[in-house]
Every structure is written in structure tokens, then in C-alpha cells.
Task: inverse folding
């Protein structure tokens, strides 16, 4: 398999869906689905009646039909639930997730990759976040069952993942260390997954996908290449102008007058150092133009990873309402992106598009009742008795403090879980009649979308993005 020049970035949750990934992959470039919260996305889509029947078609291909039936039986509602009725609240992920959640996560990631790969031979990857650790073993296994070609991970140091991929090819038990606040050197908290106990069937050996680590420094690339538990096959070097979460600046956090983190010389990556590692690498973060693609090739990169330009194309998972609001603003240069150092409960800076009627606005944020009903970004902490507790800086402040959390930590934190699901037309209807609002992320380079739009148009396809990037390359 030769590596493609363009990687369509994995954008969670659900922005990089199978439709987008399939379209890109069919052009011979790399289409990537996001695996983040995929179980939640599948469960809600099935409760909306699975328009088009695509997920049901994919689930029927899941090798263990009993599990496929369990998922359909639990979540599928023919013709969909009444609009005003809330979606079922799933049990939250813990270090010992309940069986239906394990099955749902495996099946959901299988289905997304299956659909992205259906009917062609183009390369398909899956993107997961090291920071959203608890579902990852199940997500990886599901994606591998559908034959995923690449696993792309960042937002942390995914050192253990390459070895996990090796073991999952032969369905061996796997585990991941869990970072726990308050843990000492003697503690050894883990999440374990034994595929054969969840699916006691004889399954053929699986293909080992290539592993690509997303990094923001040469040091991190070296650590991953040398100390990972298995083979690393390449890197994406992502700068701080990229959409989604960004790595925090090196050193002490200093904010500018707009209250955004200031990045400096220490955050500039020396591509020569990355090149010397000898593995293929792609550049990301405002590289979505033919000129920047050429620049990447000139420094010895394999190519680029692009997110923002794909995020608002026809095939992406963002709702059409979002595209209608954002594209005209991007076109006339009025789309503002704020690097919010506080919004994400992960503690990483998160890029937010400022749009009226969304949680980006303080008024909307304050009107939202604080509630944590999904919990993907909860932090684990050690309780007095040594057992594990879970708290999210965006949950109700009293609860967070009761669990030993520092109230300072809760300031200006937003609920990414609910906001990101609302972005996909899968907003939860909360008990107090509050409908969750959208929360849009994009990179600093959002205005460059205007270069892809054809005369007078306010929409574009993923193929337009690929053509724009490739056709402008110097011969
Ligand atoms: C809407 C959106 C969501 C994103 N979500 C993720 C994510 O879940 N995981 C990840 O590794 N990167 C994520 N990214 C980053 C992209 O994969 C990609 O690296 C980045 O967008 C490249 O820079 P650009 O935005 O300037 O094109 C996201 C980007 C956007 C625009």
C-alpha cells in the first residue's frame, strides 16, 4: 500500500463520517472516519429510524449476529422516535464498561468503517483520541473487524496503541494504563478487554492497520518511534492553528488580549528532525491549499492532513444548518475562530467558531443547565478507599467539588459532549425542556474555504476540496 498525499483529517464527533471518508477514499486519497463517541452516534441514529437504512445494512454484516441483534433490539426505532422525546441515556464509560456498551462501541466502529470501505479499494483510516481513553480498545477492535487500513491518534501520547493493534489481529486480550488523578507510583490502574470473552466465536485473523501518531513536537515523535509498544508507521505533525483541540503552548501558559494562548518559537517544529526519524510524515494546521501542499512536499513530507476545508463540505457530518451559517461568513471573511483555553474539560485549548445562537456565545452558555449525562471527557481520580471516581470539570460545580475537584477547574468549562452531538442533528432533549445547542470548531484557516467555492456558490463537495488541492500543485 503506497501512502496517499492527502489525509482528510479525522474530525470528531461524527464530522468525519463514513460518507465523507468514502468520498475521499474513492479518489485514492485517505478518507478517515472519527471513532470518537461513535457508539452514542450510532445509538441515536438508530433511534431516529436510521434514514436510508445504511447502519442497519452495515450491522447485518457484523460477524457475530447475536451482538448485531442486541444493538438493533436495544436502539432501533422504525420510523424514528417522536421529536420531543429524549434519546436514551447510555450507561457511561467506566474502567469496567457494561456489556451493552462494549458491544455497541465495537459494532458502531465496525459499521462506520464498513460503510466507508464499502464497494471500493481506497484507503480508510480511523481517528481516535488518546484523551478519550476508555472506549478506545473497543473502538479499535470494531474498526479492525471491518478491515481499517490506518489508525490515527493524538491528543496525548498513544504509546501503548501500536502493541494493542498487534495483539488484536489475533484477538488476544489487551489493556491500557489509565491516568488517574491522585494515583501514586504503586498504583496500576488499567482497562482490559478480552475479545474472546465478549465474542466467543472463532474469528479469522485480522489485518494490522498502519499506526500514525499525531504529534506537535520532534521530541514527541522520537519518543513514539522509539518507545511505543509496537511499530509506528508515520506521523502527522499538527500545528496550533488546526481545528479541534490543540496542543497547549510549551512552557507557562500566557494569554493574549483576546484571552487566547500565545504560542512562540518553542512551538515551531523542526521538520528536519522529524525527517531524520525516517518515517513518512504529513503536515497539518492551515495546510489546506495547493501552495501549502507544495511547501509540505518541499520539506520532505509525504503530504498534508486537512480538516477545516472538509468540515463544511456537503458530505461532512455537520448539520446543514451549521453549513448554511458558517459558509457565508467564511466567504466574506467574517467567520471568527477563538482559541478557547478553558472551554474543553480536557484542559487542552479548543478552537471555537463564534456564531450567534451557539454555545460559543456567553449568553447561551449561561442559559444552559450544567449537566453531565454523557461523560466521555470525565477525569478519573483516586478515592480515599483506593477505588476510582469520575468527575468532569463541566458537570454541576457542587458535584465536582463534592468529588474533591477544585472549583477553579470548573470556570468557563463547556459541555463538549452534548454540543458536538448537537452539531450532527442529534441534540439531546433535556428534562427541563432545554434542547442542547451546537458548538462548532474549525481551524484558524476557515476563510480559505472561499477559494474552494465556485462562482456564487455556497456549497462544495469533498471532491472539490481534493481537486482544489491537487490541481493547483506545480507540475
Ligand atoms: C471540526 C473539526 C473537528 C476535529 N476533530 C478532531 C478529532 O476528533 N481528532 C483529531 O485528532 N483531530 C481533530 N481535528 C483536527 C483535524 O483532524 C486536522 O488535523 C486539522 O483540522 C488540520 O488543520 P486545519 O483545520 O487547518 O485543516 C478536528 C478538526 C476540525 C476542523
Result:
Amino acid at each position: 500500500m503506497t501512502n496517499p498525499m492527502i489525509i482528510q483529517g479525522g474530525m470528531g464527533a461524527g464530522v468525519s463520517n463514513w460518507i465523507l471518508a468514502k468520498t475521499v477514499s474513492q479518489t485514492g486519497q485517505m478518507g478517515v472516519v472519527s471513532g470518537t463517541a461513535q457508539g452514542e452516534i450510532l445509538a441515536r441514529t438508530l433511534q431516529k429510524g436510521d434514514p436510508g437504512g445504511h447502519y442497519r445494512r452495515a450491522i447485518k454484516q457484523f460477524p457475530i449476529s447475536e451482538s448485531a441483534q442486541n444493538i438493533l433490539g436495544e436502539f432501533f426505532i422504525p420510523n424514528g422516535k417522536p421529536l420531543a422525546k429524549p434519546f436514551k441515556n447510555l450507561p457511561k464509560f467506566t474502567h469496567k464498561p457494561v456489556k451493552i456498551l462494549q458491544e455497541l462501541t465495537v459494532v458502531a466502529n465496525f459499521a462506520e468503517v464498513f460503510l466507508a470501505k464499502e464497494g471500493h479499494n481506497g484507503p480508510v483510516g480511523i481517528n481516535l483520541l488518546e484523551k478519550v481513553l476508555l472506549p478506545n480498545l473497543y473502538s479499535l477492535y470494531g474498526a479492525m473487524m471491518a478491515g481499517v487500513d490506518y489508525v490515527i491518534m493524538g491528543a496525548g501520547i498513544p504509546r501503548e496503541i501500536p502493541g494493542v493493534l498487534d495483539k488484536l489481529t489475533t484477538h488476544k486480550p489487551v489493556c491500557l494504563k489509565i491516568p488517574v488523578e491522585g494515583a501514586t507510583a504503586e498504583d496500576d490502574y488499567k482497562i482490559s478487554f478480552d475479545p474472546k470473552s465478549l465474542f466467543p466465536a472463532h474469528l479469522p485473523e485480522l489485518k494490522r492497520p498502519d499506526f500514525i501518531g499525531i504529534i506537535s513536537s520532534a521530541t514527541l515523535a522520537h519518543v513514539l518511534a522509539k518507545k511505543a509498544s509496537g511499530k509506528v508507521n508515520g506521523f502527522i505533525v499538527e500545528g496550533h492553528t488546526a481545528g479541534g483541540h490543540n496542543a497547549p503552548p510549551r512552557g507557562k501558559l500566557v494569554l493574549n488580549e483576546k484571552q487566547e494562548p500565545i504560542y512562540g518559537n518553542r512551538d515551531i517544529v523542526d521538520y528536519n528532525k522529524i525527517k531524520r526519524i525516517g518515517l513518512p510524515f504529513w503536515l497539518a494546521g492551515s495546510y489546506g491549499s495547493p501552495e501549502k501542499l507544495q511547501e509540505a512536499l518541499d520539506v520532505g513530507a509525504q503530504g498534508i492532513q486537512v480538516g477545516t476545508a472538509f468540515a463544511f463540505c456537503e458530505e461532512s457530518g455537520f448539520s446543514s444548518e451549521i453549513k448554511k451559517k458558517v459558509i457565508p461568513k467564511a466567504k466574506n471573511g467574517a467567520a471568527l475562530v477563538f482559541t478557547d483555553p478553558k472551554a474543553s474539560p480536557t484542559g487542552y485549548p479548543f478552537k471555537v467558531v463564534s456564531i450567534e445562537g451557539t454555545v460559543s456565545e456567553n449568553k447561551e452558555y449561561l442559559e444552559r443547565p450544567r449537566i453531565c449525562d454523557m461523560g466521555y471527557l470525565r477525569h478519573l481520580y483516586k478515592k480515599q478507599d483506593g477505588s476510582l471516581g469520575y468527575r468532569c470539570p463541566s458537570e454541576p460545580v457542587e458535584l465536582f467539588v463534592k468529588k474533591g475537584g477544585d472549583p477553579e477547574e470548573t470556570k468557563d468549562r463547556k459541555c463538549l459532549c452534548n454540543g458536538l452531538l448537537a452539531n450532527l442533528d442529534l441534540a439531546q432533549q433535556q428534562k427541563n425542556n432545554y434542547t442542547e445547542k451546537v458548538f462548532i470548531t474549525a481551524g484558524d484557516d476557515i476563510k480559505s474555504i472561499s477559494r474552494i467555492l465556485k462562482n456564487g456558490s455556497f456549497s462544495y463537495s469533498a471532491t472539490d476540496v481534493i481537486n482544489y488541492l491537487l490541481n493547483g500543485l506545480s507540475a
Remarks:
- Residues 6-319+454-471 form a domain with the TIM Barrel fold (CATH 3.20.20).
- The chain has a mean pLDDT of 95.
- The chain is about 30% helix and 15% strand.
